[in-house]
UniProtKB/TrEMBL annotation:
It comes from Anaerorhabdus furcosa. Signal peptide: none annotated. Gene3D superfamilies: lambda repressor-like DNA-binding domains (1.10.260.40). InterPro entries: Cro/C1-type_HTH (IPR001387), Lambda_DNA-bd_dom_sf (IPR010982). SMART domains: HTH_XRE. The chain crosses the membrane at residues 99-121, 148-168. It comes from the Bacteria. Pfam families: HTH_3. This is Putative transcriptional regulator. Residues 6-60 form the HTH cro/C1-type domain. Keywords: DNA-binding, Membrane, Transmembrane, Transmembrane helix. PROSITE patterns: HTH_CROC1 (PS50943). GO terms for molecular function: DNA binding.
Length: 171
């Protein structure tokens, strides 16, 4: 909700991300991350953002309020809501990392299984009678796949291992 409100209000004022970033003394990528929901502004930046967008912090956070004045209780409420949003973002990022880790592990497993299968086959298809067109096509395809696989798969395997290690890296 916050990210959509920031984007919609910025566009309604006719500001680009770059112009908004300059007004808030941040880089354009920061505004982009807020609008994509990848991060949230801290409470003081949220107040500045609301001022620049000519709205209240509560409206940015998705609430309809009657009173436009911020007091100490409102700041505490805003901080609590930002904490909830940050926890949600952290959970989403952790889930993405977990999915990436499982995909990379699956790639490694598939590569190992295919290497074992090719080793067990021992290029048996090369002894087929290639005068038969069906065997010729199948044998050529198998040989071409094995040829490319044996040369490319080690790089993919190493890249996947590095990716798995990076997903376990402490932040």
């Amino acid at each position: 909700m916050l990210n959509e409100n920031i984007r919609n209000l910025r566009k309604a004022k006719g500001l680009s991300q770059e112009e908004m970033a300059i007004k808030l003394n941040v880089v354009r990528q920061t505004v982009s991350k807020w609008e994509k929901g990848l991060s949230v502004p801290d409470s003081s930046m949220l107040v500045s953002l609301a001022d620049e967008l000519d709205t209240s912090v509560s409206i940015l956070l998705g609430e309809t309020v009657l009173e436009q004045c911020l007091n100490e209780g409102d700041l505490k409420s805003i901080s609590e809501k930002l904490e909830v949003i940050n926890l949600q973002l952290a959970k989403r990022n952790e889930m993405r990392i977990r999915i990436i880790r499982y995909l990379l592990t699956s790639v490694c497993t598939i590569i190992l299984v295919l290497f074992v299968a090719f080793a067990a086959m021992r290029s048996e298809y090369l002894t087929w009678d290639f005068n038969n067109p069906e065997f010729a096509i199948a044998g050529t395809l198998l040989h071409g796949f094995e040829f490319l696989f044996v040369r490319v798969a080690p790089f993919i395997f190493i890249g996947s291992i590095i990716g798995i290690v990076f997903t376990y890296k402490k932040r």
